[in-house]
């Protein structure tokens, strides 16, 4: 029986349920994954299609093992990770400072806002022909596309958060004779951090969306290429394995960013 | 030193948003509505006075304090502190804000240290920060963040930060807003004691009549907007003050209530 009474738990009357409470955050997600795999297996069986068209969980697992054993999964994952990391860091390194400057400098904001809103809805995928023409074949066009995809969401949300910093903080900064540099590093940057973290999280997700598309076109490595190559070889189990790998890496990267929320000087943003 | 001279200060805000823009509208409409807030304020505060500014809400008390502190420019008139024209905010006149002005991303210690940032000697600075934290009874809370403190403790931390800077003038804009009744009474007492200790000029804004009369060496009562000085009282009663012990204070209290349009002291 589940023990919901917190007092009883603290009195250690309900030992076993306390264990459950501790494991709950890990058990429940596993449960949902297990359910999806079960539905997948049943759907495969009921469909009556051949495993070549609709591989089941077991086929995918066997394929996964082959990909792990011959090292190609690792190789492709590293290639994709490299591109995402490079493009994403580039977007963070340029988008955040630019957002801070534009958020602070009203003339610049008026000057560029129209341009930003014009460029923002153009899908990074629309840039593929130009990117290939300009940067050739290889990592560069992929990194460029990933950069584009995460740059605009980061820029727009940074500008927005800077615009919404409480004016009192700037007055306090003026009151204690802060230099402009100090105002940026000790007021603006810490003030927007809690708002920026969700944007970092979302744009990292977008970067992953784009890397697959980019790799289907311009390169001969990466998880996107693995999907395309497996499709050409009619290995749907490999296609699914690449999808699973993307999902797993996505979870891991998301966890890393969520950890940033635990920094003490960011915690105020949640209250 | 903390002598303040306010000479014929006027302040108008221009409300542009509501104004319609037409080709042939009259000039006043085109430039928006002018909203006079301060209408010729003349005041002089002596060094070390605790001045309470009283007035109905929205009358321009905060605007005047912001003009004196250098956060806003007057539309006309001048403000002199110790004979020098106020040009902008400075650490010589620290403002304690109506809603917490503590930086939420810094601990209490880091916040208070901002007031002592001009000091070169690290150890001397640490000693001074600690001393002021002791004064406001926040010893032991140095490493907490503002959101982990109660409202009263936050105000005291902000007060410590202002005091560490050793300003000539201290502005407090309804610093007790949002505090419960008992905490408010305690904070009044603390400010009075602190003022007797440091003898700095304090401009204290409040809409609480009893608070102003209990605390101030000087009470300035404003009219409705656009604000003019309606009453300018010097109170020479010793602290702690009690309305029952001083008939004169009780009479003043009734006068102020009547002036502000309430005909009985509740």
Keywords:
heterodimer; A: 271 residues; mainly alpha; MetI-like fold; 2 domains; 11 helices; 78% helix; globular; B: 266 residues; alpha/beta; Rossmann fold; six-stranded mixed beta sheet; four-stranded antiparallel beta sheet; 33% helix
- Using the CA coordinates, give the radius of gyration of chain A: 24 Å
CATH class of the largest domain in chain A: Mainly Alpha
Strand-residue fraction of chain A? under 5%
Number of strands of chain A: 0
Looking at CATH, the homologous superfamily of the largest domain in chain A is MetI-like
Helical segment count of chain B = 8
CATH topology descriptor of the largest domain in chain A: MetI-like fold
Number of domains of chain A: 2
SSE succession of chain B: EHEEHEEEHHHEHEHEEH
Helix content of chain B: 25-40%
| Strand order across the largest sheet of chain B | 6-7-8-3-9-10
Give the tally of β-strands of chain B. 10
The CATH architecture designation of the domain at 4-92 and 167-259 in chain B is 3-Layer(aba) Sandwich
CATH architecture of the largest domain in chain A: Orthogonal Bundle
Q: So what's the oligomer here?
A: heterodimer
CATH domain topology of the domain at 4-92 and 167-259 in chain B: Rossmann fold
Instruction: Give the fraction of residues assigned to helices of chain A.
Output: over 70%
Estimated structural class of chain A: mainly alpha
How far is the first residue's CA from the last residue's CA of chain B? Answer: 39 Å
Task: Summarize the main sheet of chain A.
Answer: none
